[in-house]
């Protein structure tokens, strides 16, 4: 009971509320547990729309022709693969879940693109790269999992070069009828039920709607980006506001 109350007071959404470990460790544990089924669930539960969202996100980088791209919270590497459409020299994906990275590495080898995409362990709040190292930084559905969101966003800005661009794709909350009501019903009832049945991790797909609800989307997130130092941060809601694209430059 104490952990649950503390969890609510601090507004820190974690997958395993009975666990006293940090959010970072819990998130890694959660993704390790669902890594083998993650790709299927991701596309199935979003009806494949997430693929279109990633394509739109990558198009935002076309004007700067990035040659070195960092994919933060890369998971199994889907966003990194999409980034190859920009013809970069290299895409590096980092994640704190070794389970997800292992699935991703096998995927890259099977597609014979492992020379172009390198997946490695990496903490978003302490990126193992020098300043101004990348032309672009991307992250899909990962920012709300950061333990310290401001620090993670600051690190992404640090490693991108001046004039480079950071693109964030993240779930958001529709505000208009009837999508608001349909979205809430799907996210709070249907999605956790299907996710739990397929992934066998009860916490993982209960955590998803909770983390989305707690995420400061829209104008609130734009303000955070601006306060950190991103130039001209912008937001584009997708699919009636189910997700949103955010971007800014250094």
Explain what you see.
It is a single chain. This protein has one domain (22-249): Rossmann fold (3-Layer(aba) Sandwich). It is globular and about 45 Å long. 45% of the residues lie in helices and 20% in strands. Residues 1-10 have low confidence and may be disordered. Strands 3-2-1-4-5-7-6 form a 7-stranded mixed β-sheet, with helices on both faces. With 250 residues, the chain is of the alpha/beta class. Helix 5 links the parallel strand 1 (68-72) and strand 2.
Just give the CATH class. Answer: Alpha Beta
Q: How would you sum up the major sheet?
A: 7 strands, mixed
Number of DSSP strands?
7
Q: Give the CATH architecture.
A: 3-Layer(aba) Sandwich
Uncertain residue ranges: 1-10
| Tally of DSSP helical segments | 10
Number of domains: 1
Short description:
The chain has 250 residues and is of the alpha/beta class. The chain has helices at 2-10, 23-34, 38-45, 49-59, 78-83, 98-110, 149-159, 179-199, 204-214, 219-228; strands at residues 68-72, 90-95, 117-121, 134-140, 160-171, 231-238, 243-249. Strands 3-2-1-4-5-7-6 form a 7-stranded mixed beta sheet, with helices on both faces.
Properties at a glance:
alpha/beta; Rossmann fold; disordered N terminus; 250 residues; 7 strands; seven-stranded mixed beta sheet; 10 helices
Produce the secondary structure layout:
Blueprint: H1 2-10, H2 23-34, H3 38-45, H4 49-59, E1 68-72, H5 78-83, E2 90-95, H6 98-110, E3 117-121, E4 134-140, H7 149-159, E5 160-171, H8 179-199, H9 204-214, H10 219-228, E6 231-238, E7 243-249
Parallel strand pairs: 1-2, 1-4, 2-3, 4-5
Antiparallel strand pairs: 5-7, 6-7
């Amino acid at each position: 009971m104490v952990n649950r109350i503390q969890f609510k007071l601090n507004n820190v959404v974690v997958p395993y509320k009975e666990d006293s470990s940090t959010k970072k460790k819990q998130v890694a544990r959660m993704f390790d547990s669902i890594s083998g089924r993650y790709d299927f669930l991701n596309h199935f539960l979003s009806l494949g729309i997430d693929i279109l969202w990633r394509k739109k996100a990558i198009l935002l980088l076309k004007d700067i022709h990035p040659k070195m791209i960092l994919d933060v919270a890369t998971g199994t590497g889907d966003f990194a693969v999409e980034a190859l459409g920009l013809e970069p020299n290299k895409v590096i994906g980092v994640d704190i879940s070794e389970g997800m990275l292992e699935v991703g590495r096998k995927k890259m080898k099977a597609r014979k693109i492992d020379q172009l995409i390198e997946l490695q362990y990496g903490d978003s709040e302490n990126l193992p790269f020098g300043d101004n190292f990348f032309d672009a930084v991307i992250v899909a559905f990962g920012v709300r999992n950061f333990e310290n969101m401001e620090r993670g966003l600051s690190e992404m800005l640090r490693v991108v070069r001046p004039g480079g661009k950071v693109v964030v794709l993240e779930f958001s909350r529709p505000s208009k009828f009837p999508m608001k009501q349909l979205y809430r019903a799907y996210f709070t009832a249907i999605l956790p039920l299907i996710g739990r049945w397929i992934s066998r991790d009860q916490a993982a797909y209960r955590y998803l709607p909770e983390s989305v609800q707690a995420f400061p989307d829209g104008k609130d997130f734009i303000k955070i980006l601006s306060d950190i130092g991103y130039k001209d941060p912008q937001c584009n809601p997708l699919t009636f506001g189910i997700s949103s694209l955010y971007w800014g430059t250094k």
